[in-house]
Amino acid sequence: MNCPKCEGKSRVTSITRLPEVSRRYRRCTECFLTFVTEQPYEQIVPKHANKFSAKNQPPNTLLSADDVRAIRLAYKNKPEAQTLLEFCIFISRHYNVSYDYVPKLVYRRTWAWLVD
Questions:
Q1: For residue 62, what are the domain limits?
Q2: What is the pLDDT of residues 61-109, one digit of tens each?
Q3: Rounded Cα distance, 98 and 76, in Å
Q4: Side-chain half-sphere CA neighbours of 56 within 13 A
Q5: SS3 27
Q6: DSSP H helical segments within the chain, as ranges?
């Protein structure tokens, strides 16, 4: 964002999140003018919203988006008697991934961008 006074570059000094907008307080790096910009939340795009989609998945992945959805669905429908460790071992053998990677999928620590 450029300074309204001198058209120099500016830096964000702080951000206030209000119910409808994100308010950014900025300072020009050249003339040191401070000014405020506001952006409605509808215009704010998540960092990886455009980066990946169901068709354009991350490179070098062992799993597809459909695999991740199937794993999450299987976790929701797993028998109550089955422990998380048993579930992770079963899934890891079926999909050929590490058993400690499965909870990361289930709890959205990885593939968080994927909508079920």
A1: 45-111
A2: 788 888 999 999 999 999 988 998 999 999 999 999 998 999 999 988 8
A3: 20
A4: 6
A5: strand
A6: 65-76, 84-95, 102-106
- In the structure encoding, which two tokens stand for residue 53, read together? 């989609």
Q: Is 86 helix (H, G, I), strand (E, B) or coil?
A: helix
Residue 2, domain member (yes or no): no
Are 79 and 64 part of one and the same domain? yes
Cβ neighbours of residue 74 closer than 8 Å, sequence gap 6 or more: 87, 91
CA distance 25 to 35: 6
Chain centroid to CA 77: how far? 25
Residues 20 and 65 both lie in one domain: no
Number of domains observed in the structure of the chain: 2
Would you state the structure tokens that stand for residue 95, as one six-digit string?
């999909």
pTM: 0.51
Contact at 8 Å (CB) between 72 and 106?
A: yes
Contacts of 11 (CB under 8 A, 6+ apart): 26, 27, 29
What residue type is assigned to position 46 of the chain?
P
Give yes or no for residue 24 having a pLDDT over 70.
yes
